Amino acid sequence: MLSPPAYRSSAWPVALACLVAVLGSGCAGNYVARTRDLRRAYEGGRYDEAARGFDGEAKSGKEIDKLLALMDQGMVLHASGKYEESIKVLAEADKLSQQLDVISVSEEAKALLSSEREKAYRGEDFEKLMVSVLQALNYEQLGRDEDALVEVRRVNERMLKMIRDEKKPYQQLAIARYLSGVLWEDAGHEDDAFIDYDTANQLAGDLGSLAEPLVRLAKSTGRDEALQALRKQYPIITPLPLAATEGQLLVIVEAGRVPEKTNGTWHGEAKAELIAIPVFRDRPWTRDLGVSVNGGEPVAPTPVTSLEDVSKIHLNDRVGRMVAKQLAALAIRTGVSVGVGAVTKSDALGALTFLALSYGNQPDLRSWLSLPAQFELARFRLPSGTYQVALTTGGKQVTRTVKLKPRRVTLLVLRSY
User: Fold this and answer.
1) Are 248 and 380 in contact (CB under 8 A)?
2) Residue 330, CA atoms < 13 Å, CB-side half-sphere
């Protein structure tokens, strides 16, 4: 925190006593603290309890937190397999997010003297993209592949706009491009599938065994140069065509807990300025995962997109703008507090004004905490038929039954913490 203007030391006891009252009055409005038990219910598999609680938050009239409540509710419904309900809630969240993005200059100016926490939460850039990723998975699990493709296209178009038009140093989400490749392959569009698999490979750097369809499609579509390069990158993958009775299984594990915002600081060049900013800190989660089919040897899924990394990249890009806003706010707070002290002839009231305004300008620590930390994928080629799929994590096991069809790609989405 920056130091307040110099006032007579005798004013400080009164000012500090008043500030304690201000600090205590803000706790009840903290969305993160208020919904902590709902997240515990969610991570404990008590999805109905968590969904009802977030639904109540969304309908509570607390408009500043409504977007977060809708996103949390949509994620819980998605994790519980209630895909139709999740689609409806996330669609409402997406619509609200777009409305909140149209914010007036006067509202931004007002924020200089008020708390960021008192503004309606608009979402981080990656959170807005994740709404469409989850929607794509929701649609695919319901067999609505065309709608799923629309959503992954939205992710890629939005990300391209951020990079080209807004000059933001982001990369496209590999999970969206890989999912797009899966959907194209399942629909029989090999060229489109190859293009998206290839892009996912470039973004992820190393897809491991997940590169099998990429290598196979490079051969089947006659891309000899690409096939030669891919064989060097993945020498153990043999591009064998699918048998007439062979199907594919892709297990998507939404693993872990996305980082949480905490208080951080920014130091000026002279180290005289000290400004509070939010920073993402990783949270603990069980990273030892294994996916097995019909009791076979567990396979470690391959991480494709890490929200632990993405969240920090997106937030760090905003640091400069946050600091500039805080410096402008500092100048205004100092002027207002000096003015109050002069008008009232009270140094104590001037000091208290500065402290109250400074407290109100603390960083916003809200974020979409029900998201996973990573998307990890495991892929299998198997004869068509019915299979038992198990996800083992931290000594616990979740099993699902899936049916594979010849020449089709079946997706199974699982959640772990």
Assistant:
1) yes
2) 15
> Domain range spanning residue 84?
30-172+242-416
pLDDT tops 50 at residue 15 = no
Residues 331-359: what's their mean pLDDT? Answer: 65
**Comparison of pLDDT for 316 and 386, the residue scoring more:** 386
Instruction: For residue 49, give the amino acid letter.
Output: E
The structure's pTM equals 0.84
**Is residue 305 domain-resident?**
yes
CATH code of the domain in which 366 resides = 1.25.40.10
Contacts of 387 (CB under 8 A, 6+ apart): 249, 293, 294, 401, 402, 403, 404
- Joined together, the tokens standing for residue 49 give 């309890």
Number of domains forming the structure of the chain: 1
Please choose, from the candidates 48, 71, 99, 384, the residue with its C-alpha nearest in 3D space to the C-alpha of residue 258. Answer: 71
DSSP conformation letters of 375-389: EEEEEEEEESEEEEE
* DSSP code, position 156: H
- Write out pLDDT tens, residues 386-401: 999 999 998 899 999 9
